[in-house]
Amino acid sequence: MRIGNTEIRPAGGGFGCLLMILFSIVASVVLTVLLNLVL
């Protein structure tokens, strides 16, 4: 993945990239649930 003239390589290749995407989805769901519980 390229942003401007900076090359970004996900750690662990394709599997690491998939893991990061899954983690971000899970984290956003957890944060949403926590916010709904607090508010």
> Structural class from helices and strands?
mainly alpha
Give Rg in angstroms.
Answer: 14 Å
Shape: elongated
Succession of helices and strands:
EEH
Provide structural commentary.
The chain crosses the membrane at residues 12-38. The protein is mostly helical. It is built from 1 helix and 2 strands, in the order ββα. The longest helix is centred in the middle third of the chain and has 26 residues, at 13-38. The mean pLDDT is 82.
Write the layout of secondary structure elements.
Layout: E1 2-3, E2 6-7, H1 13-38
Antiparallel strand pairs: 1-2
Describe this structure in a few short sentences.
The chain crosses the membrane at residues 12-38. The chain has one helix at 13-38; strands at 2-3, 6-7.
Structural features:
single chain; 10% strand; two-stranded antiparallel ribbon; 39 residues; 67% helix; mainly alpha
